[in-house]
Amino acid sequence: MKKIHIILFFTLWVIASSCSTYYVSNKQVMEVQQGMSRQNVERILGKPDYRRFDGNTEEWEFHRVSSVLYGNSIKIIVYFADGRVTSMDTFNGDEILLPPPVMMPPSVVVTNTPPVCPPQYEETSRRRTLMMHDEFDRFLRDFRMVIMPTEQIKYIDDVLLECNFTSAQCGKIIDQINSSDTQMTVMKRMYPQIVDKENFSPVVNKLFSSFDRDSMKKYIQAYHGEQRPGDAGYVRPRAMSAAEFDRFFNEYRGKSFESDRTRMLDEVVPPSGFTCAQCRKLVDMCTFQTDKKNMIKKLYPKIADKKNFSILTDVFTFEMDKREMREFAESYDSRRN
User: Fold this and answer.
1) Does the pLDDT of residue 59 top 80, yes or no?
2) Which keywords does this chain's UniProt record carry (predicted)?
3) Residue 268: strand, helix, or coil
4) Is-above-0.90 flag for pTM?
5) In whole angstroms, how far apart are CA 104 and each of 8, 22, 101, 126?
6) Are the C-beta atoms of 116 and 66 separated by less than 8 Å?
7) 210 φ, ψ (degrees, to nearest 5)
8) Beta bridge partners of 52
9) Pairing of strands 23-24, 57-66
10) What is the DSSP annotation of 157-179?
11) CA dihedral 94, 95, 98, 100 (to 10 degrees)
């Protein structure tokens, strides 16, 4: 009898262990952050159920059961570029997908055993996947045969219902378009579904005119201005390196007109950004208190290390001015969270 109890306990432990990989909590999902390595993601979510890759981009797909709502399954897709997380999507499921069966030892018979694991559901709603290399080559060959601008836009709209793209793929598509208006339209429609937005600057430079390039940069800036941390496609600001900032600052300092300096700041769009220490150098160039405050407000969305914001508030002598800047930062962040 004692031996049977031991075998029964071991069997139930195996069943529970196999099911535990199917559970995921909201906390685990929220722990996945942009910039994480594949190893970090695997430690949080386990091994992926499916994996797709193309060059330096990769997708991991997880099928899990929510530990918050019994029987509520979710599908998680994590996108990587150069081995680092760029974005993540989650989807609810609808169809039942049972956990894998566990082999029972033949000597043990268990009757009237309640289910150990909740049922899992397979997501049926439409989701987008990254277009792989061979698939993209076929798509590009077909796209070259489309001549009329309206048909080119429709062709892109149709494929965007199903697929995401890399920046390099978007650049190859733009190369096939002869109309500047169509280039802009296609680029704006594709940008939200680019999985490696940090590599998008060379694509913008493919636009025919400087006016179009400036317009696209403003569009990107506005797009990320509306994005909140945690949103799909959100790109957290990444500070310039010391060498990059030195070049930027020397050029900025050499501008004679304020309009030229403002344009330089406007052209710094995500994922490019500044540290608070770098921003301090820009703020110190302002003469009047009001100008310093306006500069801080303009730079704040581009700051990569907001925890060091006191470096900027310390530019003011009076506590009233420091408090005003802290309240601005708190108000800005509260609108975005």
Assistant:
1) yes
2) Membrane, Signal
3) coil
4) no
5) 10, 19, 9, 37
6) no
7) -65, -30
8) 59
9) parallel
10) HHHHTTEEB-HHHHHHHHHT---
11) -100
CB 190 within 8 A of CB 156: yes
* Cα 11 to Cα 108: distance, rounded to the nearest angstrom: 9
pLDDT at 199: 83
Q: What is the DSSP letter of 194?
A: B
**Among 27, 26, 24, 69, CA closest to 45:** 24
Contact assessment for residue 315 and residue 292, using Cβ atoms and an 8 Å cutoff: yes
Q: How far apart are CA 63 and CA 98, in angstroms?
A: 11
Alpha-carbon gap, residue 205 to 185, rounded angstroms: 15
| Domain ranges across the chain | 2-125, 133-226, 238-335
| Cis peptide bond prior to 271, omega within 30° of 0 | yes
CA distance linking residue 251 with residue 261, whole number of Å: 9
Distance in Å from the first CA to the final CA of the chain: 58
Selected from 1.20.58.100, 1.10.357.10, 3.30.1450.10, 2.40.30.160, the CATH number assigned to the domain covering 2-125 reads: 3.30.1450.10
The two three-digit tokens of residue 213, written as one number: 């390039």
Integer Cα distance of 235 and 223 in angstroms: 10
173 Cβ contact list (under 8 Å, min separation 6): 140, 143, 156, 165, 186, 190
Nearest CA to 60 among 82, 34, 89, 33? Answer: 89
With beta carbons less than 8 A apart as the criterion, state whether 171 and 212 touch. Answer: no
Q: What are phi and psi of 193, to 5 degrees?
A: -110, 20
Read off the pLDDT of residues 275-329 as tens digits, 9 standing for 90 and up: 999 999 999 999 999 999 999 998 988 888 889 999 999 999 999 999 999 999 9
| Amino acid occupying residue 54 | D
Counting every residue written for the chain, the total comes to: 337
For the record, the structure tokens of 242 come out as 């010391």
